[in-house]
Write a structure and sequence with these properties.
With 203 residues, the chain is an alpha/beta fold. The protein has one domain (23-165, 172-202). 24% of the residues lie in helices and 33% in strands. The chain is built from three helices and twelve strands, in the order H-E-E-E-E-E-E-E-E-H-E-E-E-E-H. The chain has a four-stranded mixed β-sheet, with no helix packed on it. Strand 5 and strand 6 form a beta hairpin. Helix 2 packs antiparallel against helix 3 (185-202). The longest helix is centred in the C-terminal third of the chain and has 18 residues, at 185-202. The chain is globular and about 55 Å long.
């Protein structure tokens, strides 16, 4: 009996430590992104934006060593599972969950009430107000890593200048994806100016 207990002990230890770990990290930057293990390098810096999705299933990795156009830094990685964004762009990025699945940075016809609502909302965003995870909106400063969702199976996250389309990967369980869209400061400023011009022209 003692031999049997000793034989089962390693299995019990493995079972207690066997929980799988997964962190998805969307890196957004103003250049080409290369990632090898803990090393992240951004080269060919431009004014545009690129993104790279990393799927970390190694719970032992605790940080990134970042070389962003020659500027070095270390980004600590939380151990909690979830979907994260790492902003390596030169400016703050803003984002939110798309409750009705629409990308509000594209041109579309809006009624006056909706235009006024969007103008007020965007102005609050630029002031850093009404932003919280509870409200499903986000403000991520350069160099910051932020958690977007615990729901890895359903979260679909799109970075700045990434045009959304209908070809979005469907979750395996058949449920609808949960969409998050992020924007650069320039994108939102342009959108705000466009809506204000349209609203003022029809008042």
């Amino acid at each position: 009996m003692k031999k049997l207990l000793w034989a089962l002990l390693p299995l019990a230890v493995l079972a207690s430590c066997g929980k799988s770990s997964e962190r998805k990290i969307l890196i957004v930057a103003n250049g080409d992104i290369a990632a090898t293990g803990p090393d992240v390098k951004v080269t060919n810096i431009t004014d545009g934006a690129s993104e790279k999705l990393l799927d970390l299933k190694n719970g032992d990795q605790t940080s990134f060593n970042v070389d962003n156009g020659g500027k070095s830094s270390t980004v600590q990685l939380p151990q909690e599972d979830g979907f994260y964004i790492l902003n390596l762009m030169k400016d703050t990025v803003y984002g939110s969950e798309l409750i009705d699945g629409r990308d509000y940075n594209v041109s579309e016809a809006l009624g006056l009430d909706k235009q006024k609502e969007m103008i007020d909302s965007l102005k609050l965003v630029f002031q850093g107000k009404n932003i919280s995870a509870a409200n499903k909106n986000y403000l991520i400063v350069p160099g910051q890593l932020s958690k977007i969702s615990d729901d890895l199976a359903h979260a679909r996250v799109f970075g700045p200048f990434h045009q959304m389309n209908s070809n979005i990967d469907a979750p395996a369980d058949g449920k609808p994806p949960v969409l998050f869209k992020f924007y650069s400061s320039d994108e939102l400023q342009t959108r705000l100016q466009t809506i204000e011009e349209s609203y003022n022209a029809t008042e």
